[in-house]
Amino acid sequence: MKQKVTAASTATLAVTVIVWAMSASVHAFERQHDSHEHGAATMLLAIEGDEMQLRIESPAANLLGFEHAPETAEQHQQLAQTVALLRNSESVIALPEAANCRTEMTEVRHSLEDEEHAGNEGSHVHSHDDEHEEAHAEAHTEDQATAEAEKGSHSDFAMEYHFECARIESLNSIRVELFHQFPLLKDLDVQYITPTGQGAVELTPENAQLSF
Question: Is the pTM of this model over 0.90?
């Protein structure tokens, strides 16, 4: 009997393809770049169907100026403010208005807190499809295990953003706003996968726009 392909199954497949592509890119990318280099960060971008996903990893020092668990009230406040800023996708990247993109999910994780606070940094925004959460949960399992293995040596931030765009064909560039928010960030190594191809580029405060 022929299986009926529904819109939901198509959406799930699209998300799975993106997650698989980004996971494969992570391993290839980390062989070429030090995953913990002060002043540097990495970004993976994948577009499939009407969806775009971003994953950004950065040493905590780039975003906070320190890498240890907060020790003072001021540092606790700085961490909270940084997480709140990173949860706002508009503070991270700017997208073409013509693409009419909507933030569907954001998640911010870091390794500066103890286990009591772990898992509290995720934020799902206007999520209307549970399949998205299931696909991301599977992809995050390996990330969490890696973070635990590295805990105690370095502190890092990992941010993920999921967008849905009404006119995805107009999404042909992004501008990174992180450089303005965090002056200690000097370069961002980007790897991208789009329907028209894939590539890699290094962005800087002076050259913060990626076109594809």
Answer: no
